[in-house]
Task: inverse folding
């Protein structure tokens, strides 16, 4: 049964068809707006959803920074439904009612007047690359990346394979090794990510996502998972590689694009979360553009 606002229900696999349909119709640019993303992070954020008229509403009901909502997904104009959702958060006890990860489309729709406080949140901006840049690595700016790739090819005999259900157990084992090397148990953010990776792999077939893996001596040492975000853009949700093997991240990045996304113009590699090392890594691939995201509040809240 479809929950109608103000009723909500937890995100579950049984909701995939309707939620995917509503998101795909919107043709989002922001990486949060796929069913896969909502599903694999549902336990961590207490993800719940509802429908109000023509709009999909998603609330992060259980976070360490309070409850908040994603922007309403659906046709313009969304001024009324944005106000309604923020007011509902306030009335149901949220001390700082807000929308997070709102895109520029919503900002344009609600701009003007003094009803909403809108601020850009740089750490949430998504990085968009030309897929041909990632798979070809041409030009002087990619010289270091090509060196990584060429050195790796000279050093190792590797095999790229498209991910299937048969690879899931090996990917889970590789992700567990990665977590041990990175001491996930000592870092809450890595522990949370590990849970999302597990959800994605264990529900790989049901989620209908794409994946690729790098094998060395018959063992998976890197893998990536992604899907189409919109008709011109793929999104890479997860990318893991053995950190002890130099150049392996560059290899899985390039190979996944070459084998899976060569016919899709752009690749969204999600946000940097404000982490300096992650920002540096994403910038080193020279994004075509960044997708801004915004926090929206009621000014009188």
Result:
């Amino acid at each position: 049964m479809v929950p109608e606002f103000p009723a909500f229900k937890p995100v579950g696999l049984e909701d995939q068809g309707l939620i995917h349909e509503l998101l795909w119709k919107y043709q989002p640019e922001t990486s949060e707006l796929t069913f896969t993303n909502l599903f694999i992070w549902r336990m961590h954020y207490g993800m719940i959803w509802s429908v109000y008229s023509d709009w999909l509403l998603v609330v992060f009901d259980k976070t360490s920074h309070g409850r908040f909502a994603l922007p309403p997904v659906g046709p313009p104009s969304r001024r009324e439904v944005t106000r309604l959702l923020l007011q509902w958060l306030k009335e149901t006890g949220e001390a700082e009612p807000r929308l997070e990860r709102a895109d520029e489309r919503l900002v344009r729709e609600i701009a003007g007047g003094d009803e909403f406080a809108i601020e850009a949140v740089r750490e949430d901006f998504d990085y968009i690359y030309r897929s041909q840049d990632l798979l070809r690595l041409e030009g002087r700016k990619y010289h270091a990346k090509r060196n990584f790739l060429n050195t790796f090819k000279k050093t190792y005999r590797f095999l790229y394979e498209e991910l299937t259900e048969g690879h899931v157990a090996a990917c889970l084992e590789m992700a567990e090794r990665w977590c041990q090397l990175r001491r996930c148990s000592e870092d809450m953010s890595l522990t949370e990510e590990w849970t999302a990776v597990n959800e994605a792999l264990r529900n790989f077939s049901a989620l209908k996502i794409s994946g690729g893996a790098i094998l060395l001596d018959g063992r998976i040492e890197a893998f990536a998972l992604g899907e189409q975000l919109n008709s011109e853009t793929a999104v890479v949700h997860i990318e893991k590689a053995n950190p002890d093997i130099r150049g392996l991240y560059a290899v899985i990045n390039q190979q996944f694009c070459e084998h899976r996304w060569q016919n899709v113009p752009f690749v969204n590699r999600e946000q940097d979360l404000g982490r300096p090392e992650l920002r540096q890594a994403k910038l080193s691939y020279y994004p075509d553009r960044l997708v801004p995201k915004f926090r929206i509040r009621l000014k009188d809240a």
